[in-house]
Design brief:
Layout (H helix, E strand, L loop, with lengths): L12 H33 L4 H6 L10 H5 L5 H11 L33 E3 L7 E3 L4
Antiparallel strand pairs: 1-2
């Protein structure tokens, strides 16, 4: 609001960053478990784990600068939502399960990301209960 009036922004950026770091640290075990599950099949197959190693420090989970302008407080749920939005999914979609000649591999976007909105509709509780429409 102050920006629209041509006034300097009153910011509590340091406090927001401190809260972000606190919540990120508190959510790190949950996030690391998700990352481990995501790369488990690569580990079992003996594939490279370079991507896993690069994600372990959670550098992909970054403080959002727009929070400085539109937030007075940062809740744990805000950082959790950011973690969910940056989450990577591996979704197996087999449209023609009984016709192997028509099988194909599709990379689907994260259902919680901007790219995934509109493709997915939750039909129950939990991450495994999503229904989606795909142009074929």
């Amino acid at each position: 609001m102050l920006v629209k009036l041509g006034r300097p922004v009153l910011s509590n950026a340091d406090e927001l960053r401190r809260l972000f770091d606190t919540w990120k640290k508190e959510l790190s075990s949950k996030a690391l478990e998700r990352i481990r599950r995501h790369f488990w099949s690569d580990f079992e197959a003996g594939r490279s784990l370079d991507s896993y190693v690069s994600m372990r420090d959670l550098d992909f989970l970054e403080f959002q600068e727009e929070w400085v302008l539109d937030r007075e407080h940062l809740a744990k749920a805000d950082v959790g939502a950011l973690l969910d939005a940056t989450r990577k999914y591996r979704i197996l979609y087999v449209p023609f399960v009984f016709d192997p000649s028509r099988w194909c591999v599709m990379e689907l976007p994260n259902p919680l990301s901007a790219a995934g909105r509109g493709l997915f509709r939750e039909i129950g509780a939990g991450a495994t209960r999503l229904k989606f429409g795909i142009a074929q």
